[in-house]
């Protein structure tokens, strides 16, 4: 039977400079700042221009409804998740929530899954940065540049931005996010002013189109497009009035992404016409958005969109980098990762050691793929991103399952909708979403069966490794185990 330590024996987190070493900058981020981090991680412009054409090609004109359905599912999930934010004051994000509901072994499995998931989502995107930059340079100037220097420059830039203070990063992301959403709004405005190719139509939302055979693939892509929205809780220690800020940021991010994605995809369908858009997407998947904005706004706007896709990718990299650093900081404070990763910069108040370590890991992976002669998009991006995406979806599912178990034991004043019904519905829907992505993984990787099985298998393997680590710590280091995911003031 494990030994439960006295509360005085559980390692503490400092509450400010006077309590010891520097800590994260408190009460810095408002709702809009956290929304910038979350939405930037999703990279709306990249998702729309790079993935939505494939969704249209496979799912037809009903594709916009797929994004709405994914948004509704995640909004239902947010009901229970945000209810828990009033009771869980830990800064460790999802793993703390999962630990409170499902126990320390599952919580530690979730913690390792979060590390792999966020690292996979970020490091793979350095391949996308290289590919997008190559395409932009070729499109604008007709030049061909090697991909590795671009990825290395991205690593350096993201490290520097993450090294700076969190409010500095929020300002950078705010500017980049406004720019990438602005170009999509410009496209939508041009289409609406012209009335589309054959007039505006609501065909995308008719039952026949929504129930089309390709909607399974669309739903898989739609859920993937929201990856990273759950990271609101990671910024708890830096948020102003987190009990209010985090729920507001979560709902705002989900609502914005769901409505914005659906609106932009519907707009592009209008640009070509419901009877011609699928063929247009099939003929030129990568150029669908660029052709539309050239037609309805001008070639200058297409050139600007090329540039803004690069900045969109940089914003996504920075958002995931910041999330990873805070997970690393928290797990270092728990004693699960080396204590050095828990150091905070005395001036910028950033987890700078965790940031440097994450950048070093990214450098190793990027150089490894480069030395192997891999393609930056089809291999570095897709192969590294895929297990990261599946891992984060699995975290969402575990968090939804954890909510009713937590409230069954905790004293609370919440209603049954928030504590039981919504989390249960969300768990079922998220399980379906995870199944859709895992069984349609070839849409994301373009790889063979062997590669796909390996990439999917990474997720349960990492989770089980975390569970095994927890069971080992329970025997060998009971004090550390008992203090895992403990409240700061316990």
TrEMBL record:
- Any one Pfam family here would be AA_permease
As for membrane topology, the entry says:
Multi-pass membrane protein
Residues in Amino acid permease/ SLC12A domain copies = 34-478
Q: Where is this region: Disordered?
A: 1-23
Here the segments flagged for biased composition (Low complexity) are 13-23
Instruction: List residues traversing the bilayer.
Output: 34-59, 65-85, 106-129, 141-161, 168-190, 210-229, 249-269, 289-320, 353-374, 380-407, 419-438, 450-471
What InterPro entries would the database entry show?
A: AA-permease/SLC12A_dom, APC_superfamily
User: Is Ribosomal protein included in the keywords of this UniProt record?
Assistant: no
The question of whether Transmembrane helix is a record keyword is answered with: yes
Q: Where does this protein reside within or beyond the cell?
A: Membrane
Q: Which PANTHER family match?
A: AMINO ACID PERMEASE (PTHR42770:SF16), AMINO ACID TRANSPORTER-RELATED (PTHR42770)
Q: What is this protein called?
A: Amino acid permease
């Amino acid at each position: 039977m494990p030994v439960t330590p006295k509360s005085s024996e559980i390692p503490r987190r400092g509450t400010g400079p006077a309590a010891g070493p520097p800590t994260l900058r408190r009460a810095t981020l408002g709702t809009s700042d956290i929304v910038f981090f979350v939405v930037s991680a999703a990279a709306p412009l990249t998702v729309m221009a790079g993935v939505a054409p494939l969704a249209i090609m496979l799912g037809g004109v009903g594709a916009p409804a797929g994004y709405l359905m994914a948004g509704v599912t995640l909004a239902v999930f947010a009901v229970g998740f945000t209810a828990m934010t009033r009771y869980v004051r830990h800064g460790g994000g999802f793993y703390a929530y999962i630990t409170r509901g499902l126990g320390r072994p599952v919580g530690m499995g979730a913690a390792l899954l979060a590390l792999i998931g966020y690292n996979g989502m970020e490091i793979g995107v350095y391949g996308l940065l290289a590919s997008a930059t190559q395409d932009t340079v070729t499109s604008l100037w007709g030049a061909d540049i090697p991909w590795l220097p671009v990825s290395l420059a991205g690593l350096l830039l993201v490290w520097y931005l993450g090294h700076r203070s969190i409010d500095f990063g929020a300002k950078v992301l705010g500017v980049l996010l406004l720019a990438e959403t602005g170009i999509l709004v410009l496209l939508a405005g041009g289409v609406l002013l012209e009335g589309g190719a054959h007039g505006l139509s609501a065909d995308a939302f008719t039952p026949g189109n929504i129930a089309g055979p390709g909607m399974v693939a669309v739903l898989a892509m739609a859920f993937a497009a929201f990856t990273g929205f759950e990271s609101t809780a990671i910024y708890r220690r830096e948020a102003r009035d987190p009990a209010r800020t985090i729920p507001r940021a979560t709902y705002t991010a989900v609502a914005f992404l769901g409505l914005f994605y659906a609106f932009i995809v519907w707009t592009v369908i209008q640009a070509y016409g419901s009877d011609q858009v699928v063929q247009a997407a099939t003929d030129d998947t990568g150029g669908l958005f660029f052709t539309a904005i050239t037609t309805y706004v001008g070639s200058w706007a297409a050139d600007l969109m090329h540039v803004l896709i690069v900045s969109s990718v940089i914003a996504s990299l920075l958002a995931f980098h910041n999330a990873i650093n805070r997970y690393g900081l928290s797990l270092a404070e728990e004693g699960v990762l080396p204590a050095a990763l828990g150091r905070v910069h005395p001036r910028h108040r950033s987890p700078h050691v965790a940031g440097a370590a994450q950048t070093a890991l990214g450098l190793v992976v990027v150089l490894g793929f480069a030395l192997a002669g891999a393609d930056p998009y089809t291999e570095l991006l897709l192969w590294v991103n895929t297990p990261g995406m599946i891992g984060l979806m699995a975290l969402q599912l575990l968090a939804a399952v954890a909510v009713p178990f937590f409230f069954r034991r905790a004293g609370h004043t919440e209603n049954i909708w928030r504590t039981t019904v919504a989390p249960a519905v969300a768990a079922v829907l998220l399980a379906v979403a995870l199944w859709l992505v895992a069984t349609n993984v070839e849409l994301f990787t373009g790889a063979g069966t062997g590669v796909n099985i390996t990439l999917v298998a990474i997720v349960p393997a990492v989770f089980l490794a975390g569970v095994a680590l927890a069971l080992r710590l329970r025997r060998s280091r009971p004090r550390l185990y008992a203090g895992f995911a403990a409240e700061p003031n316990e």
